Every structure is written in C-alpha cells, then in structure tokens.
Amino acid sequence: MLVMKKEFVVKSIDSAPDGAPYVILSLSSLKELKDGNQNPPAAFGSPKVMGFSNMNDMMKDLSKMMSGGGGGMGMPSGITQLKLEMHEYKEMGLSVGDKVFLELSKAETLGV
C-alpha cells in the first residue's frame, strides 16, 4: 500500500453553502505558512462583489472571477478544502489554527 502524509493548519471552517449538514474545512500547508506565502482565507461559496459599467466588462470580469483570477469563486492557491459531515466535525473538535494531518493511501492492485 502506498501512503502519503501531509501536515496542515486549519485556516477556516465554513457551513455548507446549501444549508446541508456538513462543513467546509479549509487547510493551508504548514510549509506555505512557514514560507510566508499566506493568502487571505476565502470562504467556499462566498464570491467577491464586483461592479460593472457595461455588459462587455461584466462578461470579462465574470470569466476572471470564475477562473479564480478575481479572487471570487476560484480556489486560492495553497488552500486545500475538505467536506466533513457534521458528526465527523463534532467528533474531531476542530477549530481554526489546529494542526492536522491528511493521510492518503492507495491500495496496490493485483492484475488488471
């Protein structure tokens, strides 16, 4: 079995944008924090308000926002987001600033 383990810090904890019983946990790698490459936390589903003077500007700015260039709905670099069910979140007792480890494992497959 292949295993990868990474260390993170909880940057923000947000409720589900659709009101469902889960939370969005935003994590930043410890390496990013030590290097000083911190981006301001952007909550999942909280788009930036943008003003438009005409339809052409609106279309240009909207495409930037969707791709992340405007800091709106796109995911900021250096942030990993997880969706946790409410009971998982409560069991872990997580809060902003907590150090957490994310472990990914891949089972070795035999044959095709």
Total helices: the number is 3
Principal-axis shape equals: globular
Q: Output the strand order for the largest sheet.
A: 3-2-1-4
C-alpha-based Rg, rounded: 18 Å
Any key phrases for this structure?
globular; OB fold (Dihydrolipoamide Acetyltransferase, E2P); 112 residues; alpha+beta; 4-stranded antiparallel β-sheet; 2 domains
What's a concise summary of this model?
The chain is an alpha+beta fold and 112 residues long. It has helices at residues 30-35, 55-67, 86-92, and strands at residues 2-15, 22-29, 79-85, 99-106.
Question: Topology, please?
Answer:
Elements: E1 2-15, E2 22-29, H1 30-35, H2 55-67, E3 79-85, H3 86-92, E4 99-106
Antiparallel strand pairs: 1-2, 1-4, 2-3
Overview of this protein structure:
This protein is α+β, with helices and mostly antiparallel strands and 112 residues long. The protein folds into two domains: 1-40 and 79-112, Beta Barrel (OB fold (Dihydrolipoamide Acetyltransferase, E2P)), CATH 2.40.50; 42-75, no CATH class. Helix content is 23%, strand content 33%. It is built from three helices and four strands, in the order ββααβαβ. It has helices spanning 30-35, 55-67, 86-92, and strands at residues 2-15, 22-29, 79-85, 99-106. Strands 3-2-1-4 form a four-stranded antiparallel beta sheet. Strand 1 (2-15) and strand 2 (22-29) form a beta hairpin. The longest helix is centred in the middle third of the chain and has 13 residues, at 55-67. Mean pLDDT is 74; it is low at 38-50 and 67-74.
